[in-house]
Amino acid sequence: MELTHSRKLEQHEDLRNEVIGKLKDGWSPEQIAGRLKIEPRAPHQICHETIYQYVYSKSGQSQELGRYLPARQKKRKPRYARKVRGEVFPLETSIHNRPEEINDRSQFGNWEGDLMIFERAQGNANVATLIERKTRYTVLLRNNDRKSRPLMNKLINEMSPLPADARRSITFDRGFEFTSWRELKTGMGTKSWFCDPQAPWQKGTVENTNNRLRRYLPRKSDPTAFTNRYLRSICDRLNATPRKCLGYQTPAEVFRTKLLEGASST
Question: Could you say which residues form the signal peptide (predicted)?
Answer without folding.
Answer: none
